[in-house]
Amino acid sequence: MTLFKTLLTVALAGLSLAQPVTRRQETGGAAGGGLTDLQILQFALTLEHLESAFYSQGFAKFPPADFMALGLDAAGIEGLTAIGKTEATHVKVLSDVIKAAGATPVEPCTYDFKLTNAASMIATARILEAVGISAYLGAAPLVKDPAILSAAASIVTVESRHQTFIRTASKAAPVPQAFDAAIGPLQIFTLASSFITSCPAASNLGLTALPSLNVLDAGNIRGGSMLKMVVPSSAAGMSCSFTTGDGGLQFAKFENGGCKVPEGLGGETFLTVTTETTGVKALADAKIVAGPAVLVLS
């Protein structure tokens, strides 16, 4: 923690970063945005607030016995609570370094995680940790200061440990693929906004979420199956894009209210309906019709 804080403090010391976070919607996926390093830190803090609140609310709602009923032993429950503590630490350190830069850290929002039982908490944690990892990877190319990039890398490695622990607790393969997917800030914000009911006015990141994508029968997804979904609007030449760390972008034609899931996908996969097709390395936010949504495949 001390090294992380020192790296960020040194990195911010020479920067004039006190401007408010008011950037408009990006034009490119993981490579777009034109965000400053401070804005990226505020974005990271927004996500860490969400994750910290998630674990805090979940542990307040469900006693250890509920997790034991899922098969976790005392050591497993201790490991799960440790995840929540590290998320709270990330919040504190990011807040401190943003203050050191002369700016006001974004505040927590009001959240609705729709947690009905301990099993739903584990399932949601699996998605949130996957989103967190992809958020840091997607923002990495935008960071200008090497020290901030190094410090952010020290967070994403911990998020990866969280994800492995959660996957193991879910009785899923701990490492389903050799790589994780990088997802751009606006698409990550869209995913996060599904858990946010309201935010303080001063915590407005200046982003507008993309239209939501409602996947039907999301509990039984496999390669080669038809995936049905509800898209709020339509456009000519729509396709489904599937983003994974191993396979990059894969596309399938959108027809009859859905698309066919490509073979060979694994882990947490990001589904987006877009007007783009093959031949692109990153989705342009402006061409996204709806999404992303997170598919849990293995």
TrEMBL record:
Pfam families: Ferritin_2. PANTHER family: DESICCATION-LIKE PROTEIN, STRESS RESPONSE PROTEIN RDS1P. The keyword Signal applies. Keywords: Signal. It comes from Pyronema omphalodes (strain CBS 100304) (Pyronema confluens). CDD domains: Ferritin_like. InterPro entries: Ferritin-like (IPR012347), Ferritin-like_SF (IPR009078), Pigment-catalase-like (IPR052965). SUPFAM superfamilies: Ferritin-like. Residues 1-18 form the signal peptide. This is Similar to Protein rds1 acc. no. P53693.
